[in-house]
Design a protein that fits this description.
Number of helices: 9
CATH topology: Rossmann fold
Distance between the termini: 38 Å
Order of helices and strands: HHHEHEHEEHEHHEHEE
Length: 228
Amino acid sequence: MTLKETFDNESKFYDEFIVKTVPYYATIIKEASNLLPYKNDAEIDILDVGIGTGNFEVELFSRYKSVRVDGIDVSENMLTVAKEKKFVKNANINFIAADVLNFVPQNNKRYDLVVMSLLLHNFDGVEEKTRVLRNTISLLKAGGFLLLIDLIKFSNIVIQTKVTEEYNQFLHHANGVTEGENWRQLLEKEDKPETIETLTEITQQLGLSQPTILCQKLNFSAMLFRFP
């Protein structure tokens, strides 16, 4: 099944799925939005790569009233769900059905901030993730930022074991033991996270700064990188 097919199928229950599989999800996106290096009245151009159902934009537009957002997603079904949310009515947002690997903005537009939330771990291996990040970073203005919110793993086996145990407990608590175990097995098979060290190495090779960790909850982290 392709990534598009997966997200098309998940679109109607995606918001429920996220809450049940990402610990402290609401806290992560709220803290990440609040800690962005912009004033509340900032007039900036933002690209959300893999905007999904627009959960990050709910937080974004509640704090920054004058931002302009282009949101792309390979799944038109996800975009349909996003367009139905209340925040869209008063938001300067443009939804675009597109693949991150071949997206070209109109008029060669560049962005002050690119957001990529819960997307990168779906791509297999360092080489493919590098391709995604290279295309994404090419869309930044000089001095712009990349906000990466995603599943991570740890190079320290002791920490990784402890975090994995705590995450499995979260899945069981949020979903019940049987359903939680089903989710654990499925996510263990499908998810392809990298360590922060690997992500840092990739992004530095592509010209970004060392990341600032805005928020980290168990095996999910919000990282901010600056483009010189």
